[in-house]
Amino acid sequence: MSSKQALYESSHPIAYVRPVKVADLPESIRKQVEGHETLYSVHNEDGERLAILSHQKLAYFFLRSNDMKPLTVH
């Protein structure tokens, strides 16, 4: 690992992007996202949900624009 990469990783908190089936979400959320089968839940290192977004690329963009390092969870 280069020193530049190590600096990036140490200065950017990790966050996780996880696909979520809309059918598994509360009804109040399902009503707002008609037409989607899957959303992407974004969580911080402690597992706290930060956001639910409509597209995986949008989730990654959201994290990077907030100086977080995105990882995917299956």
Please tell me about this protein's structure.
This protein is of the alpha+beta class. Helices cover 31% and strands 32% of the residues. It has one domain. The chain is elongated, with a radius of gyration of 14 Å. The mean pLDDT is 85.
Strand residue content: 25-35%
Low-confidence stretches: none
Q: Strands of the largest sheet, in order across it?
A: 3-2-1-4
Question: Would you list the SSEs in sequence order as H and E?
Answer: HEHEEHE
Structure annotation, total helices: 3
Estimated radius of gyration: 14 Å
**What is the total number of structural domains?**
1
Number of strands: 4
- What's the overall geometry? elongated
Helix content: 25-40%
Mean pLDDT: 85
Largest sheet: 4 strands, mixed
Q: Pairing-aware structural class of the strands and helices?
A: alpha+beta
The termini sit apart by: 25 Å
Summary tags:
74 residues, alpha+beta, four-stranded mixed beta sheet, elongated
What's the gist of this structure?
The chain is an alpha+beta fold and 74 residues long. The protein has helices at residues 3-11, 27-30, 56-65; strands at residues 14-21, 38-44, 49-53, 69-72.
